[in-house]
Amino acid sequence: MAKKYNSEGYYDPxxxxxxxxxxxxxxxxxxxxxxxxxxxxxxxxxxxxxMARKYCRFAxxxxxxxxxxxxxxxxxxxDTVPAERKLGMFMGKVLMxxxxxxxxxxxxxxxxxxxxxxxxxxxxKRIRYFTEELVEK
Length: 137
Description:
This protein is α/β, with parallel strands linked by helices and 137 residues long. It has five helices and four strands. Helix 4 runs parallel beside helix 5 (111-122).
């Protein structure tokens, strides 16, 4: 914590301001916004899971916290059962509420992704689009 007085008790505004700036920069570096990862799951699930992991890693590498419901919920929900898919989509929308942005990856927009994008638009989320090569469109 920045102190206005040095160890000898003298007022030291230069050191105080410098220390304050360093502390502010460190706090900013610790902040990581939560982003919703929107990418295909159905179809070639093995490939799509691999790509979703790559997208999540990209989010981490860009100082964000990724949320990818299709990676998590499919561990215990069966995406081929309509009721469970609907539940997973609902829970994903709930998690999206905690996210600052929605990041859409790839050129193929699935039906599930379309629903997520529409929900993001209705709730005023910032939506960013990326290619499979992680280049923003």
